[in-house]
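User: Can you predict the 3D structure for this chain?
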Amino acid sequence: MPATEQAHLIPQSLRTWFIIHFYLDIIFGLPLLFLPTITLGLFGWETVDPATTRLVGAALMGIGVESFLARNKGIETFRGMLNLKLIWSSSAVLGIILSLIDDAPSMTWMFLIIFASFFGIWFYYRLKLK
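Assistant: Here is the predicted structure, written as structure tokens:
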């Protein structure tokens, strides 16, 4: 079935979440990519590895931009993107929890809540598109 015929299979709310995710990834990804020390300093990090921080910024940018580009595609594209978003957000949740165990700054809890929330959103829609 062509993508244009599949359009009704994808909830408009999911397309909206892809756009929201794009904007949030750009808002957080750009500063992490270009100003890693300043950006993480605002969130309480005293020691920052710029290379690793820039990799996170690049990942956010890549996933965010692809979310925007895929927002009008067919169901297979959405399934693939949801799989990617589930892998990314669940890995991020695990990494954040491990960081909290290692005594990360208190603002890390905010990132845990954000990534866990997005995991929930993506999981809900992935089940819906089975």
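The CA atoms of residues 69 and 112 lie 26 Å apart. The chain has one domain: 12-128.
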